[in-house]
Specification:
Number of strands: 2
CATH architecture: Up-down Bundle
CATH topology: Four Helix Bundle (Hemerythrin (Met), subunit A)
Shape: globular
CATH class: Mainly Alpha
Strand order of the largest sheet: 1-2
Mean pLDDT: 83
Order of helices and strands: HHHHEHHHHEHH
Low-confidence stretches: 151-155
Largest sheet: 2 strands, antiparallel
Radius of gyration: 18 Å
């Protein structure tokens, strides 16, 4: 039995298990651990592909399994976290009526994440870059919100915290995320070309530097800002190319 061919798939399953546990913990209000596990799922998501390339054991099974795991970790889990935020938001209308269904709209993110992953598997244009927002980036934006809104850990986040805790902002995330996931917006991938040459990877190095500075300055509140900057830098870079 060749054990090495099972290593990438095992890492993928750890991604899936981390994301599943994160969703359960979020429903129990344990957001900090849920966010940590979603971050861990993102780490596993990176290393399963890395391991497959390193060991030269790529397979169609691994490709499909990776997408299934991503649907859970970066589609369903952020949907659950956003569901909890909207459901428990002080701004939610009281007295019943159709408003009780508002939190369930967050499940659209899971649906559009699945659609994005299905398109990605069939789209040969997305081998070195992306069209539309990758599910891990979208998930990180959403799962950072409970750490920002009303968190004593980042009292210096100011307006970012106020925005993140607003009901209408949380509801607006749903259509915006769904659109970005399946859009044709070109976005760069953090895959280095020509080794680690600065000239060939200048945009990526600039983005990494900005991200580190934002995390130092804003802590958790820097995560959604980083995702927004990622989109903006991608658009500017693409415009310069054309």
């Amino acid at each position: 039995m060749d054990i090495k061919k099972h290593i990438p798939n095992t890492i993928t399953l750890l991604n899936l298990m981390s994301g599943s546990a994160a969703a359960i913990l979020a429903l129990n209000g344990q957001f900090l651990t849920a966010v940590a596990l979603t971050g861990l799922a993102a780490v596993f998501d990176f290393f399963d592909g890395f391991a497959a390339r390193l060991l030269n054991v790529k397979s169609e099974t691994g490709k499909e399994l990776d997408s299934l795991a991503d649907v859970i970790s970066f589609g369903f889990t952020p949907s659950v976290i956003l569901f909890c935020l909207i459901r428990d938001n002080p701004g939610m209308p009281t007295g019943g009526g159709l408003s009780i269904f508002l939190p369930y709209a967050s499940l659209l993110i899971a649906a559009f994440s699945a659609l994005r992953l299905a398109k990605f598997n069939l789209d040969t244009r997305q081998t070195v870059s992306f069209l539309g927002l990758p599910t891990p980036a979208n998930a990180l934006f959403i799962v950072s919100l409970p750490l920002i809104s009303g968190s004593s850990m980042i009292q210096d986040a100011g307006i970012i915290s106020d925005i993140a805790s607003g009901l209408w902002f949380q509801l607006l995330i749903i259509p915006v995320s769904c659109y970005l996931l399946v859009s044709e917006i070109p976005l760069f991938a953090l895959k280095f070309s020509n080794g680690f040459s600065f000239a060939a990877n200048r945009v990526k190095y600039i983005f990494i530097l900005i991200s580190v500075l934002l995390l130092i300055a804003l802590k958790w509140a820097g995560i959604p800002v980083i995702i927004i900057i990622y989109i903006l830098i991608s658009l500017i870079s693409e415009k310069k190319k054309s």
